[in-house]
Amino acid sequence: MFTISPRASSSLYTETSVTFVASGMSSTALFSSNPSSPSSPTGRLTMVGAGPGDPNLLTVAALHSISDPEALVISDRLVSQEILDLVKGEVRVANKSPGCADKAQNEIYTWCLGGLAEGKHVVRLKIGDPFVFGRGGEEVLKFRGMGVEPKVIPGVSAVFAAPLLGGIPVTHRGVANQVVMCTGYGREGTSPDLIKYHPDQTVVFVMAVGRLRELSRKLISMAGYPPDTPVAIVEQAGNPGQRTIRGNLVDIADKAERENVKPPSTIVVGDTHIYAEDMTDEMCSSAITISQEAFQMNVTKGKVYATIAAHIRAGFDKSFGRGWNCVVGRSFGAFVTHEIKTYMYFTVVPGVYILLWKA
Ligand SMILES: C[S@@+](CC[C@H](N)C(=O)[O-])C[C@H]1O[C@@H](n2cnc3c(N)ncnc32)[C@H](O)[C@@H]1O
User: Fold this and answer.
1) Ligand 1: residues within 6 Å at CB?
2) What is the mean pLDDT of each run of 10 residues along the chain (359 residues)?
3) Which residues, other chains included, contact 136 with Cβ-Cβ below 8 Å and sequence gap of 6+?
C-alpha cells in the first residue's frame, strides 16, 4: 500500500522536494522498495509498464492493475486502444504530444495526486517498460518527493520486443554479442553522443525516426559505421499496423520518407540475422545445412563466393522449387529490402553473409 500525506500534497510542484530526495540518497537507495512510512494513508499508486501495445504482451501483474474496477488509470498517449479497452475503472490519457510534454507531465502529476487524495488506486500506465526511456525513474523521484511511494511493475520494452516482432534477434551467436540501447533525442532536443562502431554489436534506437537522416549520416561519418550496415525500422510493433522497413545506413532515410514511417518506431542497426516470416522452419534449417555443405565443398577448392552462392541456389531450387536467388559476400545490407518477403540473411562462416531469397 502506497500513500500520500497532506503535507506532501501541499508541496506539489516544488522541484526542491525532488532535488532533496535525489541528492540525499545513494543511487541504490533511490529505487529501494522500502520507503519510509507516510503518516496519513489514503490512496495507493502503481506504475505499470504496458509493453509495446499488444494486450497479449501485458504481464499478469499489469493486467490485474489496469482491470481493477476501483482504479483510476492515468495513461501515456501511446498506449494502445486495445490495452485501454481492458481498463474497468476510469481512464485519462495524457496529451504528451511534441511541444507540450512538460505541461502534460504536470497534468499527469495533478491527476495522480487528485486520485490519491480521494483514496483511489491510481495506476500510472506507461508504454513499454517504465524505466526504459520513459521518465519512469523521474516520476518515481517526483512522487517520492511528494510523499508517495509507487509500486513499479516492469513491462516488455519496445527496445527488445520491437526487433523480435520484426523478426530480428538483437543478439545472435557469431554475429552480435552486445546490444546498446540509445535514444535519438537527448534532454531538450539535444543529440546524444554516438557510440563507436563495433562489428559484433546491435544498436537499438528509440525516439529516433524524426532524426533518422541525420543519425544515419553521423553513424557513418562520425562513428565509423560501414555505409552498408543493415538497418531495419519496426513501426507499430505488436499493433495491427505493424510493418518493417529494411535498408542500410545510406538508403534507410529515403525509404522511411517514401514509406511515411511514423512513431512509434524502433530502429535496429547491425548485422544480426534477419529471418523473414515467410521462411518455414524447414527452409531455415535446410538453408544452413546446404550452405555449410557449399562452403565445405568449394572453399577447400579455392572457389569464389559466386560459386558458393550458385551451389546454395541450386540446392534450394531442388528442395523447394525453382525461383531462388542467392548472394554471398562480406556485407550487403543494401539487398535487404522490404519488397522481398521470402528471404533469409544469415551466416555459417564468421564475417561472410548469405542472402537467400525468392523474388
Ligand atoms: C518514450 S520511449 C518509451 C520507451 C518505452 N518505455 C519502452 O520501454 O518501450 C517511446 C519510444 O519507444 C519506441 N516504441 C514504443 N512502442 C513501440 C512500438 N509498439 N513499436 C515500435 N517502437 C515502439 C519508439 O521508438 C517510441 O518513440
Assistant:
1) 52-53, 127-129, 132-134, 157-159, 162, 206-207, 234, 236-239, 263-266
2) 32 25 32 40 90 96 97 94 96 79 87 94 97 94 93 97 88 83 79 85 94 94 90 92 88 94 94 64 86 85 84 90 87 55 81 84
3) 47, 49, 126, 129, 130, 152
